[in-house]
Structures are given as structure tokens and as C-alpha cells.
Write a structure and sequence with these properties.
The protein is an alpha+beta fold. The protein has three domains: 41-69 and 76-134, Beta Barrel (Thrombin, subunit H), CATH 2.40.10.10; 155-250, Beta Barrel (Thrombin, subunit H); 256-343, PDZ domain (Pdz3 Domain). It is built from six helices and 20 strands. It has helices at residues 2-30, 36-42, 97-100, 237-250, 285-288, 308-316; strands at 46-56, 75-88, 92-95, 105-109, 115-124, 129-134, 155-160, 168-179, 190-193, 205-207, 213-222, 228-236, 256-257, 260-267, 273-280, 296-300, 303-304, 323-330, 333-340, 342-343. The strands form four sheets. The chain has a six-stranded antiparallel beta barrel with strand order 1-2-3-6-5-4. The protein has a six-stranded antiparallel beta barrel with strand order 7-8-9-12-11-10. The radius of gyration is 28 Å and the shape is globular. The termini are far apart.
Length: 347
């Protein structure tokens, strides 16, 4: 019996110990803390952008009498750095408009160290987004799941080119969603994060713990003395993708426009809220519809209007030529007017 026990038990114990060792090894390797797999998924689609712009400087060569004696004098080359995200494998890259604005030359460096020239497809200064194009194919594309919803407290990683150091990753959390009135545009509600964003990160990727794109890093909150307090903002991916498609399709973003400036909300005795009309552009759609300064817009297409950013986005999404039915309050009297949107006359 003892010999039989040894014959059965010893191999069983050895096999069990070997199996446990394999399980522990796999667990230690797969459960390694960190976000390396997320970075591996996203980083190949994040690029570094270098621009050069020829700036004129005022010198004696500006005098007509001196120009025959001046060649290539009175100008200097200004370089700047930024980041971008490859959103299509055929060479389309999303970045910030301020990264490439007025640039005479744009170079894109990929994660593998190769670089290529790029051209601007279009910019949208109202969201600070731009699309540039490199002549390449089969490029790695940033993972993006439009069904994934970011949540406050989720891990966020910023990938970009801070201070020209090359591909760098910083980690934080999503501090807030739908931050409005951060910049002068009503068309973006920003993602707020405490992942470190520095000069050169502009246009780079804000990703989640799986490497999926959350947004395009665009700006930081600064103290009055210009110091970085560790609060950054990113343009949500759904907004960035919509802008990208508009730029690729039309070369610009086409938004509806009424030619009206809306100010503070007006609360009526019955609880309704409207927005007071502060200014009306002569000849614009609102002027043609009969609106005047001092009116209050209560609804647009029967949708209550209580916030100027909500109103701006609602009007912007109405393509030029769309009829908007407005409910107006003037001198305590309600009436309806129809305004036909035109395209925003400036970018």
C-alpha cells in the first residue's frame, strides 16, 4: 500500500505544484499594474508636429529706398511644436488649429521615428481643430469606440510631445465632463483632466485605460501669473470627429447662423425662461425675420432656450437654408417668427 501511495501521490503532488507555479507566473505577468497595453494600442497613432513660419520683422529694409539692397533681410523663421492623432489610415491627422495656423512648413514625425511633410486640409478656429494630411497609407489609427462614455473618475492618459521631448505619457483622471465657458467658443464642452498637459501636448491624444481615444488635448488652465496649475482640457472625441468629417468633406465646418447676439436669461412669471437679444446684424437672418434688440427668444423649433451655448449649438446644427420657428417675447407680448439660417460668414 505504501509503495502504491508513493507511486500515485508523488507525481500528483509534483504536477500540482508545477500547475500552481504556472498559474502564479501567468497571473503575475497579466496582472502587472500599469497602462502599458493602453499606451501600446494608442501611441503608434500619436505623432509629433513641427512647424516653421516665416515672420517679417521691421527693419530699415522696409523703406522703399533700401529694398534694392536687401535680400532675405527683415524676416526670421519661427518654429513651434505640437502633437497630432492619426484618425484615418490614408494619412489624415487631427490636431489643434493653433498648432498649424499660418505655418509655411509642417513636418510630422511618427512613433517609429520616420517623418513626412504635411499640408493643411482645413481648420476650424471656433473649436481649435485642424485636419492635416500626409502622403501615406496603412498608417496606425487611434482606437475609438463611439459607444464608450467617459465618466468622472475614470483614468485618463495624455500622449504627446511636451516641450519637444518626443512621445511622452502622463496619467491622471477625468476630473469633470462638459466644462463650458472655458474658451471663447460655445461649440465645445470640454473634458477636464489632471493628467499633465504641457506646451507641445496640444493636439495630442487623451485616452482611456484601454487605449481608446477620449479627446484631443487643447489647452490648460493658467494662473494670473501664467503658471500651470495642473488642470487641462480636451475636446471630446465625438465633437472632434464631427469637425474632422466636415473639414474633409467641405474644407471647412458649415454652421447655421442667425446674426443675433444673445445675452442674459430672462425668467417670466410663469416660470418660462428666454434669452434677451442684445444685438441683431443688419441684413442677417434674424433681422429679416423681424427681431430687434430687447426681444427675448423663448423657444427655437419649440425647444426652450435658457442658455446661450445651448442656443448657439442648436442654431449651428441647422444647416444653412433651414427654417427655424422662433417664439419671441416683446413688450410682454408673445408672437412667432420664422428665420432662415445662413452660413456663419466667418470661421
Amino acid at each position: 500500500m505504501n509503495q502504491l501511495t508513493r507511486f500515485i501521490m508523488i507525481p500528483a503532488v509534483v504536477g500540482g505544484l508545477l500547475g500552481l507555479a504556472i498559474v502564479l507566473f501567468n497571473a503575475s505577468s497579466s496582472d502587472r499594474p500599469g497602462f502599458a497595453s493602453a499606451v501600446e494600442a494608442a501611441a503608434p497613432a500619436v505623432v509629433n508636429i513641427t512647424t516653421q513660419t516665416l515672420r517679417r520683422t521691421r527693419t530699415m529694409c522696409d523703406l522703399p529706398v533700401m529694398q534694392p539692397f536687401c535680400r532675405n533681410i527683415g524676416s526670421r523663421v519661427q518654429s513651434s511644436l505640437g502633437s497630432g492623432v492619426i484618425v484615418r489610415g490614408d494619412g489624415y491627422v487631427l490636431t489643434n488649429a493653433h498648432v498649424v495656423q499660418s505655418a509655411d512648413e509642417i513636418r510630422v514625425m511618427f512613433a517609429n521615428g520616420q517623418d513626412a511633410g504635411a499640408r493643411v486640409v482645413g481648420t476650424d478656429t471656433r473649436t481649435d481643430l485642424a485636419v492635416i494630411k500626409v502622403d501615406a497609407s496603412d498608417l496606425p489609427v487611434i482606437p475609438y469606440d463611439e459607444e464608450r462614455n467617459a465618466r468622472v473618475g475614470d483614468v485618463a492618459l495624455a500622449i504627446g510631445n511636451p516641450f519637444g521631448l518626443g512621445h511622452s505619457v502622463s496619467q491622471g483622471i477625468i476630473s469633470a465632463l462638459s466644462r463650458s465657458r472655458i474658451s471663447n467658443t460655445p461649440y465645445v464642452d470640454y473634458i477636464q483632466t489632471d493628467a499633465a498637459i504641457s506646451p507641445g501636448n496640444s493636439g495630442g491624444a487623451l485616452i482611456d485605460h484601454e487605449g481608446g481615444l477620449l479627446g484631443i488635448n487643447t489647452l490648460i488652465y493658467r494662473e494670473s501669473n501664467g503658471g500651470n496649475v495642473g488642470i487641462g482640457f480636451a475636446i471630446p472625441t465625438d465633437i472632434a470627429m464631427d469637425v474632422m468629417e466636415e473639414i474633409i468633406t467641405h474644407g471647412r465646418v458649415i454652421r447655421g447662423w442667425l446674426g443675433v447676439t444673445l445675452r442674459y436669461p430672462l425668467r417670466l412669471p410663469n416660470g418660462d425662461i428666454g434669452l434677451v437679444v442684445y444685438g441683431v446684424v443688419d441684413g442677417g437672418p434674424a433681422h429679416q425675420a423681424g427681431l430687434r434688440p430687447g426681444d427675448a427668444i423663448l423657444t427655437v423649433n419649440q425647444i426652450p432656450i435658457s442658455d446661450d451655448e445651448v442656443a448657439a449649438n442648436l442654431i449651428a446644427k441647422a444647416t444653412p437654408g433651414t427654417e427655424l420657428n422662433l417664439e419671441i417675447l416683446r413688450n410682454n407680448q408673445r408672437f412667432r417668427a420664422t428665420a432662415i439660417t445662413s452660413e456663419v460668414p466667418f470661421n
